[in-house]
Design a protein that fits this description.
- By secondary structure, the protein is α/β, with parallel strands linked by helices.
- It has 11 helices and 11 strands.
- The protein has 2 domains: 60 residues, no CATH class; 266 residues, 3-Layer(aba) Sandwich (Rossmann fold), CATH 3.40.50.880.
- It is 37% helix and 20% strand.
- Helix 2 crosses helix 3, helix 6 crosses helix 7 and helix 9 crosses helix 11.
- The longest helix has 33 residues.
- The radius of gyration is 20 Å and the shape is globular.
């Protein structure tokens, strides 16, 4: 627990410069005052990062400023026929042109080159602007799905679960157990439990798989050490036979960037693991899936993650100062294979999801 009498440290100047020309002294003062009030309030739970450590005041200031920058640097998008403001664009055309996402596989391609899904309504739950669905969203758009994006940290409301046909839940820098600091997490977990038990197909990634596990009654907790880097994940025997994971190689490269882990919910089937974290993927019922790892992320998007203070801190703590360039280099070397696996996984899940109609 940090000393509540500690003085706030001025954020590094280079970080403030990255926030863009819109940052003014009044804005910085406002953010610092809010953080200072939180730190000095003995009744307010102290924020915990995704690695289980108490977030120091300087990091809290940086993270809030980073989120403000993201909210001010967005692109116009239309959702459900009405304008919903601006948001960051993550189409990654350059990466896609360099790395074909459909190398030869045995059997049916399973999706993007097959039937379109028309007006299937897919709810995308996003917890920070720089963690969109990546290649998963590409598949949805290629299939003609109707995407309803909800940015929970921005206070956007959850829809009636009867209004969606499938849910994609992405990652974020917070912990799945930060209910006291972020009350909307409890509502999201209740929504997830209700939806999954009603048979709504669910695809959770990183924080998303932890939220799925917690919503189904399993424990989520800090792991022994953050798992960061381009690292292998091995499929279990059940994973090799799973209708979604079948056809993938027994061991595949993935991007890891997390510190929390989870126990398997009762009745879940473990599909993949790594030496550091045995629970890397699971299935609950026929269409609720969660993966701890990333195979949807381009090198360009990973660079954006490195600008998030909590992510950068975990990266340097595990891999050492200046580790970003090496990480991006390894990601670029494996991008074609990883994005192909991500596309195939998501296509197969989407095919599986269409078989089951939510109640």
């Amino acid at each position: 627990m940090p000393n509540r009498e500690a003085q706030l440290v001025e954020p590094p100047k280079d970080f403030c410069q990255r926030l863009g020309d819109g940052l003014v002294d009044d804005e910085l003062t406002s953010v610092r005052a809010t953080v200072e009030a939180d730190v000095q309030n003995p009744e307010k739970p102290q924020p915990r990062d995704r690695n289980g450590a108490t977030r120091v005041p300087e990091t809290a200031v940086q993270l809030r400023l980073h989120r403000r920058r993201q909210r001010s640097d967005r692109h116009v998008e239309w959702r459900g026929g009405r304008r919903r403001g601006e948001r960051r664009k993550h189409e990654h055309q350059e990466c896609q042109s360099k790395h074909p996402r459909h190398p030869p596989y045995s059997g049916d391609c399973g999706g993007t080159h097959g039937r379109r899904i028309g007006l299937v309504r897919v709810l995308v739950l996003q917890h920070i602007a720089c963690e969109p669905p990546g290649v998963y969203e590409d598949v949805l758009r290629e299939r003609g799905a109707k995407i309803h994006r909800v940015e929970l940290e921005e206070g956007e409301p959850l829809p009636d679960r009867r209004e969606v046909d499938a849910i994609v839940c992405m990652g974020g820098p917070m912990s799945a157990m930060d209910d006291a600091e972020l009350p909307w997490l409890a509502a999201e977990k209740a929504f997830t439990a209700d939806s999954v038990h009603a048979g709504v197909p669910f695809w959770g990634v990183c924080l998303g798989v932890q939220l799925l596990a917690a919503s189904l009654g399993a424990r989520v907790y800090p792991g022994p050490a953050p798992e960061v880097g381009v690292l292998p994940v091995e499929l279990t025997a059940e994973g090799l036979a799973d209708p979604v994971f079948a056809g993938l190689p027994p061991v595949l490269p993935t991007l890891q960037w997390h510190g929390d882990t989870f126990d398997l919910p009762e009745g879940a089937v473990r599909l993949a693991g790594s030496p550091a974290y045995p629970n890397q993927a699971f299935r609950f019922g026929p269409t609720a899936y969660g993966v701890q790892f990333h195979v949807e992320v381009s090198p360009e998007l990973a660079r954006e993650w490195a600008a998030v203070p909590e992510y950068a801190e975990a990266l340097e703590r595990v891999l050492g100062p200046g580790a970003l360039d090496d990480l991006i280099g390894r990601l670029e070397a494996d991008a074609a294979e990883m994005l192909a696996h991500g596309s195939r996984l998501f296509e197969r899940w989407l095919d599986q999801a269409l078989v089951v109609t939510p109640s």
